[in-house]
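EI: anyone free to look at a 145-residue chain?
SC: sure, send it
EI:
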Amino acid sequence: MDMNLTETRYTISEVEARTGLTQHTLRWYERIGLMPHVDRSHSGQRRFTDKDLGWLSFVGKLRATGMSVADMVRYAELVREGDHTVDERRELLERTRREVRARLAELTDALDVLDFKINMYARNTAGSTGTQTTSAETVAGKARL
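SC: here you go
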């Protein structure tokens, strides 16, 4: 791999400090193929680049979506295979986006129930005895707690 001599390179300890990923995790990512080839110094120490840090940031976003490790590794393989895999990569990301949107809808529904219950308890604590005739009654029906 040709590297510009002025390109900043980071040790595994520096990458750990910058990303919050442990050295064990970084080595594991490399071993399972989630991390592209990491350059090595003449003594065998890993030397990460800004491009590697960018990739790790992207992988962190994929992890946050709940994407499986197997799918993340598959995505990394597709990237390495080249431009002819763009459609398959897009499909994988689109599927993940659909799953994230479904989870967001579930969480929004759960948040609505929490908000309703919190507001109900706040009114009860404040001594309110009025009747509640809001659309939130439907939400409350889902979560009689």
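EI: Helices lie at 12-19, 23-32, 50-65, 69-81, 86-125, 136-142.
SC: 👍
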